[in-house]
Amino acid sequence: MSFPKNLISYGEAAVCGVSGLGFQRVDHRLAFPWKHAMTLGGECACYKSFPPRKLSHIDRETRRQDHIMGWEDVMPLQDVTFKDIERSGWNRLAEHYDHFAGSFTSQCVDSILDLAEVGIGTRVLDVACGTGMLAAGANQRGADATGIDFAEEMVTTARRRHPSLTFERGDAEALQYAGGSFDAVVCGFGMLHFADPERAIAEAARVLRPGGRYVFSVWCPPQKAKFFELVMDAIKRWGDPEVATPPAPPMFKFADPATASASLTAAGLQHATTREVTLMWLPSSADEVVAYCYKSSVRLPLLLDPQTESARTKIFDSIRSGAERFRTASGYEVPWPALLCSAERP
Ligand SMILES: C[S@@+](CC[C@H](N)C(=O)[O-])C[C@H]1O[C@@H](n2cnc3c(N)ncnc32)[C@H](O)[C@@H]1O
User: Fold this and answer.
1) What are the Cα distances from residue 340, in Å, to 91, 186, 279?
2) Is the CB of 322 under 6 A from ligand 1?
3) Which residues does 32 contact at the CB level (< 8 Å), separation at least 6?
């Protein structure tokens, strides 16, 4: 079956794959919307759902563009939750992750594992494992590591990258493990993607044994993390920074050390500490800095998609020219300061 490239123009519609694994706004501003849609069902919803079924409230449109008749359901964007968007987003981005964010989140694997006191025989859970770098780092230290992620494409990618390790689908906010199962729980840059981060911290605390260590990392706020500052300034200058986005916790909530420590303590953990580290992204061009917004972020498209076409062009131009501040003799260096937060179960 071939997919037309013009699966577009459903406006404020979101499409749900047949297996119900995720949602994606169908938007002509995305480069290959049909491809994004295809990946929603994890195992390719379009194929599975043929022969096509007619859809209710967009039936007229499906008749006009019968190539989308493979979809089971279509719902208004306002019915799609932040969690739905996160999951479909990470499914779509899994293939790009290690080239973009993973190229520098990997730089703090050892710092996180050190704080979690991971060594030979440590039972480690890597929550929101993405492509599995923390679990793999723990395994290299002789630990017994398991990774979980709610995006099936991430789990598939992690298994492909590290075939000897265990990766499972799982929700950080409802871990499938018994209390006290792990000596250490680590979570690299998952916190700012959780719909209910306090619940995720409570779950991590629950599955730790007494004396077990919990470590998570988050990005510092735009005042310190210059990539975010560049993008946010461009949106403020050329677009509308107040566009409606699905209700979600503030992105940089845990970047405040006091808030992070208080949340760890509120979950019953003790000796909460935070430490800042600076990771370095080395994009090859200013275009790659722009590309990051759509290839390695789920939250930025929520701010960029609703902008007008002309505003978005100006925003991208502005990011591209602003990226010159990161230019060095050999390319580009974008510092990404991060906060590592740790605590221990009493
Ligand atoms: C920025 S990536 C981090 C990947 C990796 N841990 C790292 O340090 O590079 C965020 C990951 O969180 C996952 N995620 C988001 N919400 C989740 C949830 N509720 N449960 C499990 N995984 C979740 C996403 O699927 C994605 O793989």
Assistant:
1) 26, 10, 12
2) no
3) 5
By the 8 A CB rule, do 41 and 17 touch?
Answer: yes
Cβ(90) to ligand 1 under 6 A? yes
- pTM, two decimal places: 0.81
Mutate to test the pocket of ligand 1, among 98, 189, 295 (most ligand atoms within 8 A of CB): 189
For each of the domains in the chain, give its residue range(s) and CATH number, in order of start: 7-80 (no CATH), 102-344 (3.40.50.150)
More confident residue, 72 or 110: 110
Question: Is 130 near ligand 1, meaning CB less than 6 Å away?
Answer: yes
Cβ–Cβ < 8 Å for 274, 261: yes
pLDDT confidence tier of residue 309, bands split at 50, 70 and 90: confident
